[in-house]
Write a structure and sequence with these properties.
single chain; alpha/beta; Urease, subunit C, domain 1; TIM Barrel; 8-stranded mixed β-sheet; 8-stranded parallel β-sheet; 16 strands; 38% helix; 26% strand; globular
Length: 376
Amino acid sequence: MSPVAFRNARIVLRDEVITGSVLAQDGMITAIEPGTSTQGEDFGGDFLIPGLVELHTDQLEGHYRPRPGVFWNPLAALHAHDAQIAASGITTVFDAVRIGSDPDTPNMAVHVDKLTGAIAEGSAGGWLRAEHFVHLRCELPAHDVIGQFDTYAVQPLVKLASMMDHTPGQRQFRSLEAYRRFYKTGRTEEELERYISDRLGDQARYSQPHRAHIVRRAQELGLALASHDDSTIEQVDESVRDKVAIAEFPTTLEAAAAAHDAGLAILMGAPNVVRGKSHSGNISATDLVRAGLLDILSSDYVPYALLQAAFAMPARIEEIALPAALATVSINPAEAAGLHDRGEIAIGKRADLVRVSMVEDLPVVRGVWRQGKRVS
């Protein structure tokens, strides 16, 4: 590959921001020079940041199922999702694919097969802008989650699994009223109460044996594990016993502090930072930043929120500077996922790079390079 060079850029390194130039060759960063240069594309003072690393986005499923009962061509859905991801500055993405059927999606295995198949085909074909991996979101109370996990966890692109339990009255939905608001659409009061009763029965029957199986198989496969919506010390203790690496979306300060003390990487939603609150009424991600308890941000349901939140944090929180804020969307998630070749602008790292201009207080992506090749 021909060398790629950028100059007159505000380069965000791991611990500081410098003005200078970056050179890449064969997909890797080979030089970082402070000061002026006449070589390469002139950034005119724009920021040069590492490509963002996204560990948990539900957007592929949203493109595949844009309306209830409407399922799009999976390759077309992946194409639209990939374009949105790259345009948001994300160069490495873990596509969250739910496994485990429920009354709203009774044949989930059919859809998982189509989505993981599309990701494998797109990756092998070389036409994806970002590099895609698969994150299996395992709904523990689902009766068929074990069969689906055993089928898909062995696929090469599967690198992460999270253990979820959306049963009403605990974790994300400790408030039954919040649960009712979230799941009421299209149901009468009687139907909703029956739905809640059925979910409680499924949890009592399946959650613990399913969790034990998934933990055992993930450890055998060397698959990274994440907990989901821990809200109590007891749930964090369970995650520690199961050798979980990432605590996704802890819902209380108590749980977040316990997870941090135990060495788990704490992941929260970037939309939570942008909005200043959780859509479920749980702990604010900004409060965890102030407490020194946040390691990773995920775009969750808005891809652009990842970049937006990283640039918003230094303006809102005096204790955090831009390099530390950007680390939550680049080097920290990369290291948590075992991807030590990317996530920062440093010699010997992948040339996954993003040009960002500021329009008032919004960061605007003006160019994206993955391994030195422009993709957006």
